[in-house]
Amino acid sequence: MARLADYFVLVAFGPGPRAGSGEGQGQILQRFPEKDWEDNPFPQGIELFCQPSGWQLCPERNPPTFFIAVLTDINSERHYCACLTFWEPVEPSQAPACTGEEEEEAGERPSPSALGPPSQLFAPKTLVLVSRLDHAEVFRNSLGLIYTVHVEGLSVSLENVIGNLLTCTIPITGGSQRTISLGAGDRQVIQTPLTDSLPVSCCSVALLFRQLGITNVLALFCAALTEHKILFLSRSYQRLTDACRGLLALLFPLRYSFTYVPILPAQLLEVLSTPTPFIIGVNSLFQAETQELLDVIIADLDGGTVTVPECVHIPPLPEPLHSQTHSALCMVLDPELELADLAFPPPATSTSSLKMQDKELRAVFLRLFAQLLQGYRWCLHIVRIHPEPVIRFHKAAFLGQRGLVEDDFLLKVLEGMAFAGFVSERGVPYRTTDLFDELVANEVKRMRADENQPHRILRHVKELAEQLYKNENPYPAVTMHKVQRPGEGSHLRRAPRPFPRLDESTVQWIIDQATAKLQGAPPAVRAEKKATVPSGPPMAAIVERNGAVHANSARRLEVVRNCISYVFEGKMLEAKKLLPAVLRALKGRAARRCLTRELHLHVQQNRAVLDHQQFDFVVRMMNCCLQDCTAMDEHGIAAALLPLVTAFCRKLSPGVTQFAYSCVQEHVVWSTPQFWEAMFYGDVQTHIRALYLEPTEEEDGPSAKGEDEEDEEQEEERSALDVASEQRRLWPTLGRDKQQELVQKEESTVFSQAIHYANRMSYLLLPLDSSKSRLLRERAGLGDLESMSNSVVTNSMAGSMAESYDTESGFEDAETSDVAGAVVRFINRFVDKVCTESGVTSEHLKGLHVMVPDIVQMHIETLEAVHRESKRLPPIQKPKLLRPSLLPGEECVLDGLRVYLLPDGREEGSGGSLGGPALLPAEGAVFLTTYRVIFTGMPTDPLVGEQVVVRSFPVASLTKEKRISVQAHVDQFLQDGLQLRSCTFQLLKMAFDEEVGSESAEVFRKHLHKLRYPADIKGTFAFTAGSIHTAGRQPRTTKEKSPSLRTLSRNLVKNAKKTIGRQYVTRKKYNPPSWEQRGQPVPPDDQEDEISVSEELEPSTLTPTSALKPSDRLTMNSLVERACCRDYQRLGLGTLSSSLSRAKSEPFRVTPVNRMYAICRSYPGLLIVPQTIQDNTLQRISRCYRQNRFPVVCWRSSRSKAVLLRSGGLHGKGVVGLFKAQNAPSPGQSQADSSSLEQEKYLQAVVSAMPRYADAASGRNTLSGFTSMHMASHGKWGSIRASGRSSGPSLGVDVGSRLAGKDLLVPPQPNGAPSEPGFLRPQRAALYIIGDKAQLKGVRPDPLQQWELVPIEVFEVRQVKASFKKLLKACVPGCPAGEQSPASYLRSLEESEWLIQIHKLLQVSVLVVELLDSGSSVLVSLEDGWDITTQVVSLVQLLSDPYYRTLEGFRLLVEKEWLSFGHRFTHRGAHTLAGQSSGFAPIFLQFLDCVHQVHLQFPMEFEFSQFYLKFLSYHHVSHRFRTFLLDSDYERIELGLLYDEKGERKSQQACKSVWEYVERLSKKTPVFYNYMYAPEDTEVLRPYSNVSNLKVWDFYTRETLAEGPPYDWELAQGPPEPPEEERPDGGAPQSRRRVIWPCYDSRLRAQPDAISRLLEELQRLETELGRPSERWKDTWDRVKAAQRSEARQDGRSTPSSLLMSSVSHHRRSLGVYLQEGPVGSTLSLSLDSDQSSGSTPSSGRQAARRSTSTLYSQFQTAESENRSYEGTLYKKGAFMKPWKARWFVLDKTKHQLRYYDHRVDTDCKGVIDLAEVESVTPGTPTMGAPKTVDEKAFFDVKTTRRVYNFCAQDVHLAQQWVDRLQSCLSDA
Global pTM? Predict the structure, then answer.
């Protein structure tokens, strides 16, 4: 029983602190009883809550108000203060002075005149009832009665009424009804709820939903559960109270334990800025004050909104619970929603009453909690049973089993205070149960089944709602209430008098009487129905949360089991094979569980002592298990392993045993206090349970735990709570002594477990060696181990860092004890927490604190011995280091450092999505040599087999080196690593093995850096290779200049004499002297005669001289040998002798003005200039150009005689200035002006030098177009297949239209080729200057000049660099991309803009080609004239002149345009320390890529193969050769490169020049040769340049892990694999098939093209026959020649290539050719088929009639041929050719006679179509016929084209052939 009301208080208005403000404060006039109750002191501050908005006088009488405020006392008891307020007139005495101001303050009516009578004011007075029970209606009625008695003046004593009210007692629960009367003729029925654990909500929940809506209430619900601050706003106080009550009712079964103030008074608003969570209601008047609260969720009840600040995140309910709850709420609140769309809605159903709806809404939330918390009782640990139960909740296990570890909402709820209260209140195993307990235990299955059936859900909700409703209203109300109320408007009537002062003594007397009566009565004890709380079904079988149970998980578990049994049976090889699969399987939870179970079994069978290998395997598997465990260990894997790591061990030496825990410490879970607590409580529960079990049960108790089988585990869990429940039931019946004994037993059980755990923790926290521990301390402040993320560090790294950390301190012991201290502190914290929680006595606790340091110290001592012994263990057998093969002259700088090569973003090597073997990660070593960085090793995955993995790149090509920390796959340790990226598109991502100290790694980096950036170019491999590193020649100082010239001349005389006569004037192709004898011991005089192509003169004096001295003349002769000069002669641009003698007929001459490199250091010594320009003016002209690179001729078109010139960009004062300054020059002409004039003259001279412009009468020519004639007759466009979309403005518009700022006549073709005939207009200028748009801004062409400026936009070098970086990352990504899709690669490729730059280069080059072809000269004048200019000029020559598409011509082109004209290879390639900051700019590589693109489009036009281009791309950065070093000829001469070479050539020295190497290699193998080479003469190529037509070069993407890059030929050619038939074991011949792995084998080596294969076969046969093998080139040329002549005789017009029709279409037939034929310009469009092999597009000749036979040949192979008759016949070749024996096949089906070289030949050598045969006649022997054969064996076959002479082996055979042929002919 309890008092209905504790206090009655009368509170009235009192004057406030500020007199006259109209604001007062509440004053308690009277309170009853005056003394506090003992069990319930009077709550303070009631007067504030009576008028929450403040005490104020009012100008008019308001109606009485009622609301209930809630106060919470210090014991968190809630007091309900029911306040009824009414207004009474203010007596004049109360406020005589301040009425005027008060009126104004009230402001509700116009202020009266000062003279007017003071108006009446009203003061509030409040009746307050304070109670601990929440009976709102009873309070309202009771206070209303008191007010009515007073207002209506009823003849009832107020003292009696109040006395009765305060003495009324009612039961708290039980559902009984109690009728009370206060003695004023009234009657009230009080209904108590059935159970007090269920909250009473009346209609508050339903009202809350009405005001805010479903989504908002759900948000508030989640916010309250996750401890956010919630503030309700409303104008009504009662609404605020109801809303807060409703929200609390929703939280059941959790209790809200933070600040709860449904109505907050204005004076206390600062409470809102408290840091703790709260639920508070505030009147809307104060909304402004709530605006600046940043972290408060504001719910406006009147406006129906919930505002969540930006900084607050409310975690939502986990799906699918959120959506299920939402839809259930919709069904309850809006049942019409389901029916809204029906065509025939059912008759309207009656909606449930508000009270019923309220219960239905609560039922939805009750179900929600039952689903959220289902199975929670399985995660309770009962730690103590007596004297009071102590229960802990295993949060991690609960989340893990529910699969909601990541769920923010549940995590926060379980960590919250409300849930802690829930566990301590509801965890008790023996107590009264309520609706929630039954729901969570018995209805889980039903809820699971109902999930997707709304009607069944609704039925369940209604059932629950019934129970909730019954709890509040168990009986229908029988008695009617009878309570008097005041009459209508009674508050407006003038009250007879103010509320009277009551007589305290009367009230007190009534109270005392009642108390005395109660004391006499016996205490009403309500028997509580206690019972064992049902646990409900165990957690549902856990599903792998990440998407699915693996289909093959059973197979995986099988693998794990097998591997473990192999380990314990000692079958180590088997185990090793399975290990990688096991490590992969252990990512899954089931496999980890399986592992722990299997290992448990082995421990039980006493197999815990292992040998070294077994120990190693077990530890690796454990580590793998643990690495995926989070710190929470939600799946209990670490918990299951804990007993195992202290069981498995190995004997290191007598008396020293190493346990597994010393090898698995590196996991974060061991340093997590929560993990240890959960483990501790779990173990304590097991032991406590064992205390109380019967002895029989006790035996199987622990074993059940050991089995760790899930069902047994559950069995045991159930029994633990059951045991506790039973014990709690018996406890009151036990004697005092027995109780005491049980308490002591439990306490000592907990104490012994605490000691056990102190030991366990020291095992797992103290590292094996102290150095590692120092490191850990330093890393994470081991001082508090909790904050430490105990991630793993390898021994070596730890050791080295530790040494550097305190080598000087020398306090070894102090250091270790510090670690001990940290561990002791950690254990002590743990012990304190668990012991106080589980009630260990303070003496025991003190004892523990004394023991812990001893335990730790003891353990450290045993560990020292273990560490010492483990050091002596033989190291694990690591694979032998494979030494890489080195080049001659390459030396090892650093021997192998053990590393793991990790997979990068390229998938092929690691298996990846493409499948294939996982070659990476591989385990091996990295070597640093003077030339390369090389990794060699084996894949770590033993299933891949013994494949050697090699990845290397030249040191010089390193572009980026960065340190990384990597998780090496193998032992899951975090290791130091290096990532090296090279511009040859290789990436070495390595993790150092733990045996490699950080010093070694550092040494490696330093050496690498030193080799990559030598101080001087002489430090590069090209110079140091093979030589003892002598101090190279110092660049000569000025003093030595003249003597060196003299010695030089002497040296040169010998050679110069021999070469002086050899002027190559011939116009034919220039053939340089052959290089065959190079480097071979040949007769010395022969040797002397050869002059190296790359030989250069070294004039060390650089004084410009006007006349040639004799010594210079010798110098000149050496220069004549340079590539440039030879090319000038080939092009007919003049020779030195003719220039010196000034033969006026030639328009151009060779000038030696730069022979001393005085005018321009970066130009070659000899230059071509117009004949009319004097040498002395060149100096002045050069000043107008950047770097003095004035325009010189570099190529002339043999057909149109137009010339191509190159120069640097203009300085501001050049032509541009000249164009800009339109006004007349000032009288005093400056030098700048004169040089501008010189420049103008120079350009004019160039124009005049062109034959067709020699007569200036031709007048003005503006550029605009070409005639169709030029388009048609020469050149061809790339393949039509490659058309595709046009990228941006295509070539024509982009450049053509800007040529003269005019529009085009015809739009360009979509694939970037210029549009047809009217590409440019017929009139054109004599000279076009291609310049940078930025440079030529604002230039107006002067109409009198004959040249025109073409401004184009070019990219800068920094853009090339940036683009290349991105290209590298796209082609060789550093780490596997998140999304593995081709799209991501293509996206990054596009972002790099590399192809766009290639497109621009090709576009500009094609434009220049067009201009040159049309007869205009072009000057390319971009940037400094050595980057883009070089690219464009070289490309133009390559496209225009077929000579440069030969091996020899391409070499000449590179030597001339790139080397002699000074492309800065050293600067752009950052070869030395000085260039380090500028970085690598791949200008030359970009040019080679352009060549590759052209090669792809015209595969038959190039003599060299794609491999040649890749070879140059690789070696121009590799520094293996000297060719691509230094920035200009001048620098090469200064360094004296040439003379080194001359001296060395005598010895058998490695090649110094890349050309020499190519030459030597080409003799041995056709690797650089393109078999499809079949050029058409005078062919100008016009490739398509659009991005859609360009392909990514496979040089960037392909790699061969079997041998490393294939460009160092000596290394790449490993021993050839023996064909499998000739096996040494003499077994049966196997098939010759072999598996070729992507990215491992070189496909070309494994399966060479047919021709290479045949040539190899030929060589092999020749060797077998003992004949000297012939050079492959001779064989090839002979075969080709023979084939050509045969083709000619057969009259078949096929392209002259061995590959005939099979290839021809690839290049020739896929373009649109415009051909000039007799009928004007015909358009022949050949499709992609072999049809075109019969046409020669460039000439426009149609092929002869195609016969059926050739159509057949496309579809049938030789094997499937129809051979009607076959045999050997001699056939006479064409004119002047000998007789040859051939194998002939007569084919009736195809109606043809074919012949082959021999019987097994599959390649048909020729066909005679029988349709063309006119007759078969006997023949006569001719010259050269076989001698031994009878004359009658000859016969002739006459066709429409020629007569074939045949001869059979004898007469009989001849007759047969003739008959067969005749019959065929007659059949036809």
Answer: 0.56
